[in-house]
Design a protein that fits this description.
seven-stranded parallel beta sheet; about 375 residues; single chain; Lipid-A-disaccharide synthase; Glyco_trans_19; elongated; 2 domains; Rossmann fold; alpha/beta
Length: about 375
């Protein structure tokens, strides 16, 4: 009898757990008796994955937390390296978490283990020596955005665009009526979603600006309704306190349900990030804003390789939606940009058509595409 295929996976965050679970399901169609081990979350565990450590031990953010946890993280990485060099898998796959995974992938590849990485670090956005490290670390990079492939091809890194899982999950035609019923919103109202971010610092900087913008919008367009989804219990409490001085605003604060809120909205005012991609897939006109510490912004601006920060603009390589960053992130400019969508329906219609085209580009059955690419890699090494 032949040995079952053994695949090692390390997914360090909840988003990686989702990707990992879908990928495991797809790989089982190719290898019914495949064995999976490494580090994963609850959704991967439901698929029969064996995790040596709880996934949340890798979930660190910012600068201070990783430094405080460094001894533990190094210990975990050392264990994984020793285990997978002693018991070599047919493939090691790192899902996102590049700071942890790329070093592990590089060491394992030197030890003769076939390696791949799923979800490209943002080498396309910032000048970095990371692309050289990636070239040493992986036999294959799986990307979820089409423009990411160019830089890997330029550096002779084997790469495969597999599509974005969100494009597979989100319907091509969102159900606004159902979303409004679920959120108990008037079907005839003009609704603006306010989404100032999921992190405390983002909400602290953008929340007051968004609320001031909402007041300005309301003065110019009576009858507007605003919906504000909180990403967590902590953000709900923070936003609730921040709304105190703005009791005259017709704002509905809800826990979670960010996709439902965007689906129910006519226009979305949001912080730059993955939310912009979700809004695009939900075919929602949007205004993208962001504000950070002055020095941090200057450093990032100096390092930038791309002209835009919003994913819809990056995908189109032109400004489809307004980007109001730093000094441009004023309530006045936000209000003007949001109201323009209501005043120029032809602009909204053209934008939705472009979002549909982008959705089709990203909709590639990512789980199946990624699984097929990995199977080809495994079979090519045998």
């Amino acid at each position: 009898m032949t040995e079952p295929v053994r695949i090692a996976i390390v997914a360090g965050e909840s988003s990686g757990d989702l990707l990992g679970a879908g990928l495991i399901q797809a790989l089982k169609h190719h290898y019914p008796h495949v064995e999976f081990s490494g580090i994963g979350g609850p959704k991967m565990l439901e698929q029969g994955f064996h995790s040596f450590f709880p996934q949340d031990r890798l979930a660190v953010m910012g600068l201070v937390d990783p430094l405080m946890r460094l001894p533990e993280l190094l210990k975990i990485r050392r264990f994984l390296f020793e285990h997978f060099t002693e018991h070599k898998p047919d493939l090691f796959l790192g899902i996102d978490s590049p700071d942890f995974n790329l070093t592990l992938e590089e060491k394992l590849r030197k030890a003769g283990v076939t390696t791949a990485h799923y979800v490209s670090p943002s080498v396309w956005a910032w000048r970095s020596g990371r692309i050289k490290k990636i070239k040493r670390a992986v036999d294959l990079m799986l990307t979820i955005l089409p423009f990411e492939n160019v830089i890997y091809q330029q550096h002779q890194v084997p790469v495969k665009f597999v599509g974005h899982p969100l494009a597979d999950e989100i319907a091509m035609q969102p159900d606004k009526k159902s979303a409004r019923q679920q959120l108990q919103l008037d079907e005839q109202s003009a609704v603006v979603a306010l989404m100032p971010g999921s992190r405390h610092s983002e909400v602290e900087r953008l929340g007051p600006l968004f609320f001031q913008a909402a007041k300005l919008m309301l003065k110019q367009r009576h009858g507007l309704t605003f919906v504000l989804p909180a990403a967590s219990g902590q953000r709900y409490k923070q936003l609730h306190q921040m709304l105190g001085p703005h009791s005259e605003l017709p704002v509905k604060l809800v826990q979670g349900q960010s996709q439902e809120v965007m689906a129910a909205a006519d226009v979305v005012l949001l912080a730059s990030g993955t939310t912009a991609l979700e809004a695009m897939l939900l075919k929602k006109p949007m205004v993208v804003s962001y504000k950070m510490a002055w020095l941090s912004f200057q450093i990032m601006k100096a390092m930038a390789l791309v002209r835009f920060v919003a994913l819809p603009n990056l995908l189109a390589d032109r400004e489809l939606v307004p980007e109001l960053l730093q000094s441009d992130a004023t309530p006045e400019q936000m209000a003007e940009a949001v109201l323009r969508y209501f005043d120029a329906p032809e602009l909204t219609s053209e934008l939705i058509d472009e979002f549909k085209r982008q959705h089709h580009t990203l909709k590639c059955d990512a789980n199946a595409s990624a699984a097929s690419a990995l199977v080809e890699l495994i079979e090519g090494q045998s």
